[in-house]
Amino acid sequence: MSGTLVLVRHGQSEWNLKNLFTGWRDPDLTEQGHAEAKEAGEKLKAKGLKFDIAFTSVLTRAQKTCQHILDGLGQSELETIRDQALNERDYGDLSGLNKDDARAKWGEEQVHVWRRSYDVPPPGGESLKDTGARVWPYYIHDIQKHVLAGKTVLVAAHGNSLRALIMALDGLTSEEILKLELGTGIPVVYRLNADSTVASKDVLG
């Protein structure tokens, strides 16, 4: 028996729009972000998908994205589990800073290393590897069992927490994952085999 895992990065947030490092800070969605989340629900509805359970982070932008999707599917009351294990990467001292201001303060090369390396964290924050260290166990212990039981599972989360998860699902190296960009509000639909390997992947861009 195979199940379905749907990953959706939240819609555009107010700080995405302002080009700020967000991390664990909690800005809301923009009007465009709300629209992107609703459109994600429409795309999933067009595919005939219905969810058995949903997971999201403790941050507003992911929770509202999750709710828009479920509302669009007529599943507003679906059981939804929130956990900070699915939170965005913590950008530490960069959180709340404009990316251009950060470059002016630390230099373009250093900020690029913090943003795009796999295992170099910004001051007081997490690397992508650190983010994976909390996402992967949570997925294995709390999410995967539902998919392997043949259920259809929604995970509405963040660019880096989902990149860490996709790295594991797709078997990407630490170099390959750095090239992966996830668009806001674009569902990624996985069908998993009974042994947890990926049977198919469909990006509903």
UniProtKB/TrEMBL annotation:
Keywords: Gluconeogenesis, Glycolysis, Isomerase. Pathway: Carbohydrate degradation; glycolysis; pyruvate from D-glyceraldehyde 3-phosphate: step 3/5. Substrate binds at residues 9-16, 22-23, 61, 88-91, 99, 115-116, 159-160. NCBIfam families: pgm_1 (TIGR01258), PRK01295.1 (NF002339). SUPFAM superfamilies: Phosphoglycerate mutase-like (SSF53254). Belongs to the phosphoglycerate mutase family. BPG-dependent PGAM subfamily. This is 2,3-bisphosphoglycerate-dependent phosphoglycerate mutase. One of its GO terms (biological process) is glycolytic process. PANTHER family: PHOSPHOGLYCERATE MUTASE. Gene3D superfamilies: Phosphoglycerate mutase-like (3.40.50.1240). The record marks 158 as: Transition state stabilizer. The active site is at residues 10, 88.
